[in-house]
Amino acid sequence: MGKLNGKVALITAATSGMALATAKRFVEEGAYVFITGRNQQRLDKAVKEVGGNVTGVQADSSRLPDLDRLYETVKKEKGSIDILFASAGEGSFASVEEVTEEHFDSTFNTNVRGTLFTVQKALPLFNQNGSIILNGSIAGIKGFPRFGVYSASKAAVRSFARTWLVELKGRGIRVNVLSPGTIDTPALEPFGDEGRKALAAAIPRGTMGRPEEIAGAATFLASDDASFVNGIELFVDGGTAQI
Q1: Is residue 150 flagged as an active site residue?
Q2: Where are the domains of the chain?
Q3: What is the DSSP string of 84-100?
Q4: Which candidate in 59, 82, 130, 141 could, as Cys together with 36 as Cys, close a disulfide (CB 3.0–4.6 Å)?
């Protein structure tokens, strides 16, 4: 029997990379999974990759009408959920001199506003003793040049977890943050081979992480194996955040 047998999970922004790998793993562990994505074509492809026990819903987590439609679908098809992985996020580089309103608003609308309302609108459907996983980043505790807005948005997500676990303790809902380091996904393609080598060299392990390693950590946090794990920030980064 899988670690998530009979559970219903929702993973936002799961059309590629870490979130898609997590969706596959959750299904392998016995869960029924709802996944979202902004692009319908990419979403349809992801649904096919996951296989059975999955529903794809086109949605942008920063748009509240999209979230309402998403949860209407979840309620209609399954009635309730046990696991939420609020994975949607974005980030781009800009120094403090270069930051524009558009850059700030885009980053915070997805990473902070989107995370907040994704969780808020899920709560009426949440079963007792559920698990909420927030997508953090090692950038939330480290200083990377030209990445300050993104880093601040992830620090805000970390702060949410501390507050929400207290607010939701009466329902037994755990809230944890999963903070990846450098993971080998298509998002790194613009760095080229030399850039990717430099990124890997900065990791104590010496290699970048794989999406499947994030999926394994998310499965732990979602499962009863983590029943006494609440409010943590789990770094899955090969040690980068610790040095």
Answers
A1: yes
A2: 8-237
A3: EEE---------TTT--
A4: 59
